[in-house]
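Q: How do we represent a protein-ligand complex in a form that can be generated cell by cell?
A: Start from the inputs.
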Amino acid sequence: MLQISCPWCGLRPEGEFVCLGEAVPPRPDPAALTAGEWAASLANRANIRGLHAERWWHVRSCGRILTIWRDTVTHAIAPGPDGTAAPEAAP
Amino acid sequence: MQRFSFLSLARNALSHHEGWHRAWRSPPLRDTYDVVIVGAGGHGLSTAYHLAKEHGITNVAVIEKSWLGGGNTARNTHTIRANFLRDVSIRFHDVSVKLYEQLSRELNYNILFSQRSMIDLIQSWGKLRDLRRRSLAMALHGPAYDLIPVDEVRRRIPAMGDLAGVRLPPLAGMAHPEAAMARHDAVAWSYARAADARGVEIHQHTEVTGFLRDAHGRVIGVETSRGTVRAGQVALATAGNTSHVAAKAGLSLPLVTRNLQAFVSEPVKPIIDVIVNCPDVGLYVMQSDKGELVIGGGTDPIPSYRQGSHVATFEDVVASLVELFPRFKALRMLRQWGGAIEFAYDASPIISKTDVEGLLVSTGWYGGFKSIPVGGLTYAHLIATGAPHPLAEAFGLDRFTGLRFLLEAGTVAQR
Ligand SMILES: Cc1cc2nc3c(=O)[nH]c(=O)nc-3n(C[C@H](O)[C@H](O)[C@H](O)COP(=O)(O)OP(=O)(O)OC[C@H]3O[C@@H](n4cnc5c(N)ncnc54)[C@H](O)[C@@H]3O)c2cc1C
Ligand SMILES: [Zn+2]
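Then emit the C-alpha cells for the protein with zinc ion bound:
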C-alpha cells in the first residue's frame, strides 16, 4: 500500500486516491499542430520505466489533484530529479 | 526436427529417454539477418514461425534478453476466447481460437488445449446491457456468447455458494463455449521448436539496447549486449517494455504499462470445469489440469513495470472470490506473481509500421496469450509484404491520427 503525501491532508493511504496516470503537459492549441501531432499529444505517453511524474486525485478526501514522482519499477515515491519540476497541473 | 509420436515416445522410453534432441539450437549470433524480431515471447516466436512458413523468410533472428517465453507468456492465466465487442476484434480472435484448436497437430507438440466454456457472471444491470450488446455483435460473426439464467449458472458452477446473500446479487450469466485454456509454456516452446526447424535462429540472454540508424534515420539494425546486428527490418515484440525499447529509436507510442497479477491455490480434486469470470467484482477463476485454482482479477490501477503482487488489488480479488465461493476460504495459496502488460490508448492491439522506417511494432497485448497464433500470422504478413493482413487492417498506428479509435473493453474482469 502506497502512502501518498497530499499538500492539504498530509500522508494518506493509497486507497483514498485515484491515480490519473502520467502527468502530461497542458493540451496544446490544436490549431497550431498537424493532425498527427495533435493525435500524439492526446494518446501518446512516455510510459517511462523508472522515475516518472504522475497525478493523483484525493477523491475520497479533500478532492485535490496533486503530482508526485514515483518509480514505476520499485513503486518508491521520491523527490523529482534536481531542478525538474513536474509539468503544470491541469486546471 | 525430431517428431513426437506414439512410436517415438515408445522408442525413446526403451533407451531411457537419452536419445531426445534439443528442441531448438543455440547457434552463434551472426552480424546480419533479413529480419530481427526483438522478444521471444509467444508473439515474437509465432511471428518468426509464420515468416518462415507462409513467406519463406528464414534468415531471421529472434533476440531475447532473458530466456525464451519467460515474460508475460510464462506469467499469464492461459485463457483463450473470442468474446470481444468490435467486429474486427471478434473476427481476429475467432481465427485465433480456430488456429489454437489445430495447434498441437500443426506444430507436432501437445499444448494441452482444453476447450471448456467461459461463464461470465453478471451482477449489475449496466453490465447486463453491455454484455448483451456484445453478444449481439458476436452473433454476426460466429462465436457464441449466450445469455443464461442464474439457475443455469448455478448448475454449471456447483462450487459456488448460496448466491442469494451476495452483495451484488447475480442477474444472469453469459456462456462462451469456445473459450479454452492451454499450457502457456508449451505454446512458446512449440513455436520456438517449429520456427527453429524452419531455419529461424533464437538467441536468448541477448538484450537489445539500442538501434543502428542510417543517414536518413532508417533503422538498419540493433545494438545488443552481445554486439551489433544488422537487419533489413526490426520487429518489436517486447510486450510491456515496448515503450522503453521504442524510445531508444526516438519513438513515442500510445501505450501505458501496468502490472497484472495472478495466483494459484494448492491443488484440489476437480471442482470447477469452466472458466468463471465476474466482471462486476473483478475476479476470474479456473482449475488447471494439476488441480490448482488459477485466480486473477483486474490490473493494478497505476502505471507499473514491477511484475509483482500489489496488496490492495490482491485483497480485492480475494474478497470477491470468498464471497462467491465461501468454501474456498479453506484454500491455501501457493504462488503469486505479476507481469508488465501494455495497454494501447483505445485498448485494441497495434500491429503496425511506425514513423521510423525499418521499425515495426506488435503491441497492446494486455490479454494477448489468446492472440498469439493470429498475432504472429498477421505480424509476419505485415513484415513480409509491407501491407497489413486483411484481419489486422484496423490495428495500424494510423488509426490514432484519424481518431479512428477502436475502443475495446473486452477484457476479462474489466471493471
Ligand atoms: C498475470 C497475467 C495473466 C494473464 N492472463 C491472460 C489470459 O488469461 N489470457 C490472455 O490471452 N492473456 C493473458 N495475459 C496477457 C498475456 O500474457 C500477454 O498478452 C502475452 O503473453 C504477450 O505475449 P508477448 O509475446 O507479447 O509478450 P512476452 O511473453 O512478455 O514476450 C516479450 C519478450 O520480450 C523480451 N524483451 C523485452 N525487452 C527486450 C529487449 N530490450 N531485448 C530483448 N528482449 C526483450 C522479454 O524478455 C519477453 O520475453 C496475462 C498476463 C499476465 C501478466
Ligand atoms: Zn487531500
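Residues 410-415 of chain B have pLDDT under 50 and may be disordered. The CA atoms of residues 25 and 46 of chain B lie 17 Å apart.
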